[in-house]
Structure formats: C-alpha cells, structure tokens
C-alpha cells in the first residue's frame, strides 16, 4: 500500500470521525430540546397545541430522513432560504429524531403513575408546576433508556449527510478505501469506529444520567 | 338565598411572602358557623351507563368526623374523589364552606366552575390515598415542602420548618431525609398525612388509608388520625373498613349501598344495632372476615 495514500487517508478518517461527532452532538441537542417540546405539546390539554404536535411528529417520523435533508438543502434555496450544509445536517437530523423522541416523551409522561397526578391535584398544583416538579422528573427517568437507543440511532444516521457534501466517518472510510484499494481494512475501521464511539461516549453518558436521576427509585438498589 | 349583610369577597392579605388571607369568601350573616362545611346536593355520578351515585344528599358539619362504610362498588370512594375534584359530577351541586365547589353562580344561574374556581375552593380540602401516592423522587421532608412552596408560595425556610414539625407530629422526625422507597407502608402513609396537612386544609379526606398496609402497621396510622382528630379543628371524611376504629373515632357512620346512603347514624347505633337488612348483612360479612 502506498505510504502517502495511507497517511492521507488516516488523517481524512480522523477528520471524518470528528465531523460525525460534532454533527451527532449538535443534532442530539436539537432533538432533545425539540423532542421534549413536541412531546409536552402532544399531551397538552389544548387541542390546537396537541394537533400541531401530532402534525409535526407525523411529518418527521413518517417521511424519509434523507428526503427531509434533501428538502432542506436543495428545495429551500428555491424559496430563497439557503442553509449551510452543517446547519442542514444538525437541524435536519435533529428534527427528524425529535419526532421519535416526542413519542418517547409522551409515552413516559403517560407511564407516570396515575396516583401522582391525583396527589398533585389534591395538593392543588397548577398543571405546569405539576409537570415540572412532579411528572417530568419521573418521566425523564422512564424515558432515558429508550432515549439512549435513539441517540445511538441518530449517531449512525449521520452517515446520510454525505449526500449534502459533508465528508463524515462513513464517507471518509469509503474515500480511503477507494484511494488505497483496502476495503477490508477501512470498512472494518469504520464499523469498529462507530461501535467504539457509541460505546465510549453515548452509552456511558446515558448511564450516568440514569444513575444521577435514580435517587429514591428501586433502580438505585438494583444497579 | 338571602343576601348576607356583610360580605368579604376574595379578600387577600399578605405580609411579604406570607399569605395570611387568601381570597376567603365570608358571607357574614351570623349563620356561617352553623352551615355545613360540605354539602352534597342531589349529586349524581355516572360512568357511561353505570350510575355510581344517585342523587346523593349528604351534609357534614364543621369538625365532624364521618366514616363511610359499604360494600365495594357502592360509590363510597367516588364521594371522596368528587369532593377532591378528581371526578367531574354529572348532576347536582357540591358545596364547600358555604360556596359551590363544582359550580359558580352567574346571573342567578348555576354554571359549571372553571379550573380556576376549582383550584381556589379545593385548597380547603386535603386527601390521603389508599396507595400513599408519595412523590418517589423526593425525601419525606421534600414531599411535605413541595406544595407549600410551589403552590402557596411559602418561603423555603418556613415550609421546611412546618414540614419538620408535621413529620414530628406523625412520629417520623428521624426519617425526614429518607426517600419513600426506604420507608415502610405505615411510615409512607404517615408522611402522606403530614403532606396533606402542610396545605392547612379544613377538610381531610381519607380513602381507605389502611387497606394497603400489613396488619401490624395499621395501628400506627390510625393513632396518627386519632391524634389529629383530638388536637386539630378538622372535618374528617373517611372511607374505611376498620369497623372498630369507626366506632370509637367517628361522630357518624354512613352506610352506602348501590350509590345511596341507606342508613346513617351515630356509630354505636349503626354498628351496634343496624335497622336496615343490607347493613346487617354487610356488617356480619365484615365481622366474619375479621374473625
């Protein structure tokens, strides 16, 4: 193998991995914030808010992520809104994943014991205070494990942003493999790279949150 | 309704953060004290085609201790749940402390109350549940502080002092930093009682509060309730299966059957010498189960 091509490819690979990480981080923040908002609107007592959330969730969950990203990148400029590839990557993936996240938020809120709502009414909480102080702290605990899954999904879906000109980990591996002819090595590295990043960053982060939020729950005793 | 001669309408008085008066509605015609604090007027509750309560009329005097007994499905828990506004009623009016809880009077008409009205009036009522419903992510002390701070707006320090006092009253000052999961059933229920009292209700509702407890833990909860009744000016309405406690504690026992009160009276009379055949059947069945 050509030394020069190898060195060049490794550097590109590292850069690709960093790109993947940055987009993952940005899209995660977007998806968590928007998912929380959409999930809360989804259980709102006011029907216009609820319907808005349903529409948002249906659109972003029901259509293809790649098409959504294309739409933001190639179609919006027709209407005079030209977004940078990075913006499209972070918000496109973030909004798509937030629709799945919103359903996790809704399910978790509805999974909080009914007795907690009744006690909150008996203690005369306002609805928003009840959500903030009583329901959400318990719902967050319930939704953390599925959110962990979702963030790993998000991380892996970042490979699609190659189609809007960003060279991330998968694209960098492909380019390196093409340049050197060593497909086995570079795709093995990519495969392993995804696993290591997910295992070393996302899983421990979610675990850490779970532990932090588990005071007063059985899980504290079991884990 | 004759109009009272003097009327305080929604008067509030605060000293800094401490609310001394929070919108009391006091018609002063000299009859206030004699008026029942809770009154069910032809209250009907239906779930679909099933009528749970049928035109219920029930008045409860200030500081009265009333026990509600009856077979399961007779509507006794529903009475408490409607009073706590956990259930909407389908007919009739519930009055609390001289004003309608479920309705407001508008141009001489009774219309269904807004959430705001419900919130204001139900502040006079506290409830303790069969399954405790403590907030699992908060310690015993935090459970008792949360609502006073975030609902009444009490300063944290004051709320904490009051919560600690209440936990001491229920005999749990040593457990105030424990989470619910670290407490026994009886201890949880005592925290729940302290939590409800922290809101300074005028009426306390107890919904089968000992039914989820192991037999040896029932006594500690009942003795707290006994103490409450003796030391505080509280109206208490209690759904219970503890006939012995009802007999010794209550001023009146109501026997519910099929959505109606079919017999009520002083505990000695109702439990000792019931007049109605259904009451006799129920009591002998309960007695048999306990023997």
TrEMBL record, chain A:
Keyword Ribosomal protein: no
A GO BP annotation: amino acid transport
Membrane topology: Multi-pass membrane protein
InterPro entries: AA_ABC_transptr_permease_3TM (IPR010065), ArtM/GltK/GlnP/TcyL/YhdX-like (IPR043429), Ectoine_EhuC (IPR014342), MetI-like (IPR000515), MetI-like_sf (IPR035906)
Gene Ontology cellular component list: ATP-binding cassette (ABC) transporter complex
Record carries keyword Membrane: yes
UniProt GO molecular function: transmembrane transporter activity
Transmembrane segments: 29-49, 69-93, 159-177, 183-202
Main location: membrane
Domain ABC transmembrane type-1 per the UniProt entry, residue ranges: 17-202
UniProtKB keywords: Amino-acid transport, Cell membrane, Membrane, Transmembrane, Transmembrane helix, Transport
Segments forming a coiled coil: none
Compartments it resides in: Cell inner membrane; Cell membrane
The family this protein is said to belong to: Belongs to the binding-protein-dependent transport system permease family. HisMQ subfamily.
Identification of the protein by name: Ectoine/hydroxyectoine ABC transporter permease subunit EhuC
Species assigned in the record: Mesorhizobium hawassense
